[in-house]
Amino acid sequence: MAEPLDPEMFDPVCPSSALPVQIGDKWTAMVVLCLEAGPRRFSELKVPLRAVTPKVLTQTLRAMQRDGLVTRTAYDENPPRVEYALTPLGRSLLTLIDAARAWSSAARCCLLQARAEHSH
Amino acid sequence: MAEPLDPEMFDPVCPSSALPVQIGDKWTAMVVLCLEAGPRRFSELKVPLRAVTPKVLTQTLRAMQRDGLVTRTAYDENPPRVEYALTPLGRSLLTLIDAARAWSSAARCCLLQARAEHSH
DNA sequence: GAAACCGGTTACTTCAACGATACCGGCGGT
DNA sequence: ACCGCCGGTATCGTTGAAGTAACCGGTTTC
Fold first, then answer.
1. With a 7 Å cutoff on the CB, does A56 touch strand D?
2. Nearest nucleotide, C1' to the C-alpha of A62?
3. Which residues of chain A neighbour B67 with C-beta distances below 8 Å?
4. Does the pTM of the predicted model rise above 0.70?
5. Partner-chain contact A96 B100, CB within 8 Å
6. Which of A13, A15, A51, B31 has the highest CB neighbour number within 10 Å of its CB?
């Protein structure tokens, strides 16, 4: 829960890039995975999601908040602190995400092989 | 297998429009569902997918064929006949699609309620 | 001869998501 | 006085998927 997020958490050469299985917006599933182990700050999320710009991360988090997937808690401190956490609904996405990841890694070889043969 | 596809198979007000869970391109999952019960012709697919244009349906089917999800069989008859069928890999997507549909219908109420409260 | 069916193709346009870059205000530290 | 941290905004540009509308060639049917 207190452990820092792994900067390599999301491989730039993602297995799911073969046949994308997308949940919500482009970054939604990755945010859910980042929050799986507990609440995170905005700048903590930027570490594994280093390919995302602050604008898009804000957009994603606002949409997820609107949909009841995450909560946003701002602490009136200095320096400012904002924490995002999964709601039960957001947490319920984890099983679906896991299923998608399982399918992706299982099917990746077949898929890439089919593509290779297609352009033989 | 020989039964015609239901034109109302895909509700225009789709449950998954709340938080879209997308597999491959926009129409990929729907094509898989159309082919679940057996091979289908191009024009048969257009019936339940009446919101898709032939161009986009062709694109989708070509991509799925390239990825080894469907096979395309052209019969040299008159009038011409082309049949699309699921491969085992394409069929393996069904469990994932079912999981996505289950989550969507289970979460839809929560999601819409969260959105409503958000703009209360 | 005209029209319809089948399985598409072609050219043009639109639109929203995504990205790049720069900037902001309040505060604490040096 | 200045810099950096934090959690964002603002502005602009790009891109690619998707949609619209029209057309095609071969064949049977009217």
1. no
2. D8
3. 18-19, 111, 114-115
4. yes
5. yes
6. B31
| Dihedral (CA of A108, A22, B107, A52) sign | positive
Three-state SS string across A22-55, please? EECCCCHHHHHHHHCCCCEEHHHHCCCCCCCCHH
A20–B19 CB contact, under 8 Å = no
Which segments of chain A have a pLDDT < 70? 1
Percentage, residues of chain A above pLDDT 90: 82
Q: What is the pLDDT of residue A15?
A: 81
Asked if B32 and B90 touch (Cβ cutoff 8 Å), the reply is yes
Q: What is the pLDDT of residue B1?
A: 60
User: In order of start, what are the domains of chain A with their CATH numbers?
Assistant: 15-118 (1.10.10.10)
pLDDT, tens digit, for every residue of B44-91? 999 999 999 999 999 999 999 999 999 999 999 888 999 999 999 999
Estimate in Å the CA A63 to C1' C14 gap, whole number: 24
Nucleotide nearest to A25 (CA to C1'): C17
Confidence at residue B13, expressed as pLDDT on a 0 to 100 scale: 77
- Give the 3-state secondary structure of residue B86: strand
Contacts of A39 (CB under 8 A, 6+ apart): A73, A83, A84, A85
